[in-house]
Amino acid sequence: MNHQDFLSNLSSETRKRLTQRLDGPGIKHLALHWGLIIILGLAIYWGMPGWQLLMIPQGILIVFLFTLLHESVHQTPFRTKWLNNLTARVSGFLIFLPPIWFKYFHFAHHRFTQVPGKDPELETEKPRTILSYINHVSGIPTWIYHFKILLQNALGDCNSNFLPKKAVASVVKEARLLILSYITILCGSIFFQSATLLWIWIIPIFLGQPFLRFYLLAEHALCPTVANMFKNSRTTFTNRFVRFIAWNMPYHTEHHTYPTVPFHKLPDLHKIMQNELIHIESSYTAFTGKYITELKTK
User: Fold this and answer.
1) Do residues 163 and 104 touch, judged by C-beta distance below 8 A?
2) Helix axes 81-94, 168-191, angle to 10 degrees
3) How far apart are CA 36 and CA 93, in angstroms?
4) Which of 7, 61, 154, 290 has CB 3.0 to 4.6 Å from 175, enough for a Cys bridge?
5) In which band, very low, low, confident or very high, does the pLDDT at 103 lie, cut at 50, 70 and 90?
6) How far apart are CA 265 and CA 165, in angstroms?
7) What integer pLDDT is reported at residue 159 of this predicted model?
8) Are the beta carbons of 284 and 265 closer than 8 angstroms?
């Protein structure tokens, strides 16, 4: 069975139950995620004993807002549209990834998952050697890419084939406002001679990015470049904390098969389709070990 056959076999009642959007679960999840970021930020700011070590979990919590941004562009974490838009903008701002631009990038990824020449995620080659793997998980290429996209968009250089002409003006405006905001914050920090944001935001996200790279690599790497979502995506089993900060996106085959299912309903979808899954992994550690054995030594 391919993913299309699976979807066509779902009853209308099951579809309705799975795709119901609610504000409650998302608000509770968001309050805890953002709350942890604020608590750790305050602990770092107040210089609590061992505050330097807190920058790592702080960075992980912030960079994993990428998964909330990802969900928000689908308009699924909340029933209320402005809540989805707000969380997308805040998340994108904190990780230097413009949300409007990312929406079109991500929708193209869903429409052409693992299709060479059409899936924009395939434009960046997965690491094939030990050195390229180390470079990838360092997060440095990711930050370079984020800043490059911001600058290109701000200059009006929006020629990606997945970006419709009607969206160009919004994408350019978005990038310029983001850059202006970052410059304003930088100037304010210099004027007040404050390094607070450096310690509670900037350094942590650089420390946290490698953890997001490890996580994201498991979604499609080592899967064939075919259109069937059961074959081109992977579901990875993990602990509650990872599922929490990733907004249940470890159920990734499930998400790609039925992207309008909210994060809090993905475990239910998994129960229905678990026997159809092809690429599953027992943990992210297990996947990482398997991936490294596939790498060339040069």
Assistant:
1) yes
2) 50
3) 18
4) 154
5) very high
6) 34
7) 84
8) no
Q: Find where tokens 């631009």 sit.
A: 101
Distance in Å from the first CA to the final CA of the chain: 39
From the CB of residue 66, how many other CB atoms can be counted at a distance below 10 Å? 23
In the block, tokens 């929406």 appear at 103
| Residue 95 in tokens | 């990780």
CB 138 within 8 A of CB 211: no
The three-state secondary structure class of 129 is strand
User: Per residue in 198-230, pLDDT tens?
Assistant: 999 999 999 999 999 999 999 999 999 999 999
Q: Which residues contact 58 (CB under 8 A, 6 or more apart)?
A: 37, 40, 41, 44, 200, 204, 208
The rounded distance, in Å, linking the Cα atoms of 206 and 199 is: 11
Q: What pairing do the DSSP bridges indicate for beta strands 280-281 and 235-236?
A: parallel
Q: Which two tokens stand for residue 24?
A: 């409650």
Distance CA 225, CA 220 (A): 9
- Report the half-sphere exposure of 192 (CA within 13 A, side-chain side): 9
Q: At what angle do helices 140-154 and 168-191 cross, to 10 degrees?
A: 110
Over range 269-277, report the average pLDDT: 96
Which two three-digit tokens encode residue 114? Answer: 């693992």
Provide φ and ψ at 281, rounded to 5°.
-135, 145
Q: Is 143 left (phi over 0), alpha (psi -120 to 50) or beta?
A: alpha
Complete DSSP assignment for 36-94: HHHHHHHHHHTT-TTHHHHHHHHHHHHHTHHHHHHHHHTT-S-SSHHHHHHHHHHHHHH
SS3 call for 96: coil
Name which of 124, 128, 158 is nearest 141 in CA terms.
Answer: 124
Using the predicted structure, report yes or no on whether residue 281 has a pLDDT greater than 70: yes
